[in-house]
């Protein structure tokens, strides 16, 4: 069954390798490096039809270097992922999904944290032109747009952050709430035409700051938003680094109970996590999750989770 995955951090791994750490002994190649959980071979084996690649700048990078780091990752997207792998096709507009041929895999650029452009909206417009189709305002820390989920003061969106959401709306770009503070989340709900939680689970089942509480989940569904479950065990089982596929499916069950059967998808966070769900260690294992879901849901519902819900809720 075809899959759309809305979050991975392969670009950061490729950048670190190019800079000589930590993979200098094993140079990374998107086509087949086993250090990448989202390499081309794995994507093909897992029947992934589209993979989202996040541009993520580590918080310790000095502010005056963040834009350069973002450009390096985008360059790797164009040269190493698209340029060397004809099967990878750049999705630069939502209509491009409809023109994917058999055997082609869509590649989508996203931004995880507005730190990359600071308060320079010219840089943000450049990101739109380069094909960024989803923007998360923060990672866990605060920046000029908003507070993240790890910021103790728990502030919401700044005036700049609200302007960014409006620009996302105008450019048919998702606003990603996965790392936002609770107040920031609700600010987005008031403004965003296209909200998505690209990689978050249910807080009621796993009390973690990165997960969404019941009111947030209901708010997302009310505002036509998508919630894509994440495969990171600490976000599945509280205070644990292990999980089974059944444990992950419980989060899907819970989201369905809250009315989201038509607004659920997958956002693995592969290449950004360090522990894994059993039998779901990389994208090649995706059909193990599909087979587990088919035991509990109709084929039509599982197709919705796998790819169709996303396609039906993409910006128009």
Describe, in plain words, how this protein is organized in 3D.
- With 316 residues, the chain is α/β, with parallel strands linked by helices.
- It has one domain (3-313): Alpha-Beta Barrel (TIM Barrel).
- The chain is 35% helix and 13% strand.
- It has ten helices and nine strands.
- It has helices at 10-18, 40-45, 66-82, 121-130, 159-170, 182-191, 214-222, 245-257, 286-294, 299-313, and strands at residues 3-5, 48-56, 88-90, 105-112, 132-136, 174-176, 195-197, 226-229, 264-266.
- Strands 1, 2, 3, 4, 5, 6, 7, 8 and 9 form a nine-stranded parallel sheet that branches.
- Helix 4 links the parallel strand 4 (105-112) and strand 5 (132-136).
- Helix 1 packs across helix 3.
- It starts with a strand and ends with a helix.
- It comes from Ornithinibacillus salinisoli.
- InterPro entries: Metal_Hydrolase, Pept_M19.
- This is Dipeptidase.
Gist of the model:
The chain has 316 residues and is an alpha/beta fold. The chain has one domain (3-313): Metal-dependent hydrolases (TIM Barrel, Alpha-Beta Barrel). The protein has helices at 10-18, 40-45, 66-82, 121-130, 159-170, 182-191, 214-222, 245-257, 286-294, 299-313, and strands at 3-5, 48-56, 88-90, 105-112, 132-136, 174-176, 195-197, 226-229, 264-266.
């Amino acid at each position: 069954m075809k899959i759309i995955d809305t979050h991975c951090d392969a670009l950061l791994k490729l950048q670190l390798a190019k800079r000589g750490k930590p993979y200098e002994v094993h140079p990374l190649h998107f086509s087949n490096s086993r250090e990448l959980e989202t390499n081309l071979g794995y994507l093909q084996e897992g029947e992934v039809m589209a993979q989202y690649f996040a541009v993520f700048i580590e918080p310790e990078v000095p502010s005056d270097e963040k834009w350069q780091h973002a450009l390096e990752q985008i360059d790797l997207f164009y040269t190493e992922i698209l340029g060397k792998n004809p099967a990878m096709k750049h999705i630069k507009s939502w209509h491009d999904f409809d023109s994917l041929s058999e055997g082609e895999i869509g590649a989508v650029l996203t931004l995880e944290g507005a730190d990359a452009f600071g308060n320079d909206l010219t840089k943000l417009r450049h990101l739109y032109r380069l094909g960024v189709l989803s923007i998360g305002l923060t990672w866990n820390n605060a920046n000029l747009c908003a507070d993240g989920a790890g910021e103790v003061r728990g502030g919401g969106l700044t005036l700049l952050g609200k302007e960014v959401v409006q620009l996302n709306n105008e450019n048919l770009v998702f606003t990603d709430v996965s790392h936002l503070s609770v107040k920031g989340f609700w600010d987005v709900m008031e403004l965003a035409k296209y909200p998505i939680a690209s990689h978050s689970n249910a807080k009621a089942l796993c009390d973690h700051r990165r997960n969404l509480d019941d009111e947030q989940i209901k708010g997302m569904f009310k505002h036509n938003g998508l919630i894509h479950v994440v495969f990171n065990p600490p976000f599945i089982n509280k205070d644990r680094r292990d999980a089974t596929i059944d444990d992950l499916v419980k989060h899907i069950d819970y989201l369905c109970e809250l009315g989201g059967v038509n607004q659920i998808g997958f956002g693995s966070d592969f290449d950004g996590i360090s522990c894994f769900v059993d039998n779901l260690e990389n994208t090649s294992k995706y059909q193990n999750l599909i087979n587990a879901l088919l035991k509990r849901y109709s084929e039509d519902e599982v197709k919705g989770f796998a790819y169709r819900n996303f396609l039906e809720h993409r910006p128009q």
